[in-house]
Amino acid sequence: MFSTKLSARNNFMQEGFSRLWRGTNASLTLAIPTVGIYMPCYDYFRNIMEEFTTEKSPSLTVYVPLVAGTIARSLACISCYPVELARTRMQAFKGTQRNVKLPGVWKTLVDVVNPVKGSNNGYRMLWTGLGAQLARDVPFSAICWSILEPTRRSIQSAMGEEPRAGSIIGANFAAGFVAGAVAAAATCPLDVAKTRRQIEKNTDRAMTMTTRQTLAEIWRDGGMRGMFSGAGARVGRAGPSVAIVVSFYEVVKYGLHNFHQQ
After folding, report:
1. Is residue 16 assigned to a domain?
2. Which windows of the sequence hold Solcar repeats (predicted)?
């Protein structure tokens, strides 16, 4: 937590207040379609798999959140990855002068493709590091939903009342916060590898790097400390992020369900 505060303070002192929010446009551009794909897909796959396992093999029902989260996250990640790439590069961008204007999402993506324009690798560069992204996001989602689903059901059961907006928000926020924080801590080395691959400037190297090679380099350069670099910031962001997204999604579902019943 101290390192997170120190990093934010250094950013503010060296680059100005606005730089603390660099990449925000890309983050918002990414969040809307990602959540729009991810959450409904999770609900859909969870419901059909729970129905199937309950009838055919009840002992497998406990694994449904893990599998449904894995499939839904894979679909969302592949669909929205170019914007994720732009967001990471924008946040890593360091202007040589204070007044240098940061590139936007579109300009960042064009710059990714331009160095290899005319080659077979041109538009493939938009998915540079996708393997590392999947290697991080799929385990994150699997761990997150495996914890979140039973936790929120336990909280809702303990409340022992008819679902209302307040109880839905409370149960989902608490479960989401815990699940997001644990999943973020567990997958931090994969996040470090993903970021290193995304900001790699050497085109040939970026296209040939693998997640295993990147993790080996990180271990060689920084050991365990390098593998968990930025863990405090990642956990501090993931816990509230998961809590807010899941709470908002579930309460909107509850509101729409009540609206259609009236």
Report:
1. no
2. 60-154, 167-255
Yes or no: say if 156 and 198 are a contact pair by the CB < 8 Å rule. no
Alpha helices by DSSP H, the chain: 2-15, 24-56, 64-92, 105-113, 130-159, 165-186, 188-198, 203-208, 211-227, 231-261
Work out the average pLDDT over 60-87. 89
The conformation of residue 104, written as its DSSP 8-state character, comes to -
Report pTM. 0.74
Domain that holds residue 107: 23-128
Nearest to 249 by CA among 43, 1, 8: 43
Q: Residue 100: inside a domain, yes or no?
A: yes
> For 210, which DSSP code?
-
Reduce the DSSP state of residue 56 to 3 states and report it: helix
pLDDT digits (tens, 9 = 90+) for 117-132: 444 555 666 777 787 7
Q: Which residue has the tokens 């730089």?
A: 19
User: What is the mean predicted confidence (pLDDT) over 176-197?
Assistant: 91
Q: Considering its fold, how many domains does the chain have in total?
A: 2
Q: Is 95 exposed, middle or buried (0-12, 13-18, 19+ CB in 10 A)?
A: middle
The answer to whether residues 187 and 255 belong to one domain is yes
Same domain, 162 and 107: no
d(CA 84, CA 77): 9
Distance in angstroms (rounded) separating the CA atoms of residues 72 and 185: 21
DSSP state of 121: T
* Contact by Cβ (8 Å): 216, 151: no
> What is the C-alpha to C-alpha distance for residues 7 and 5, in angstroms, rounded to an integer?
5
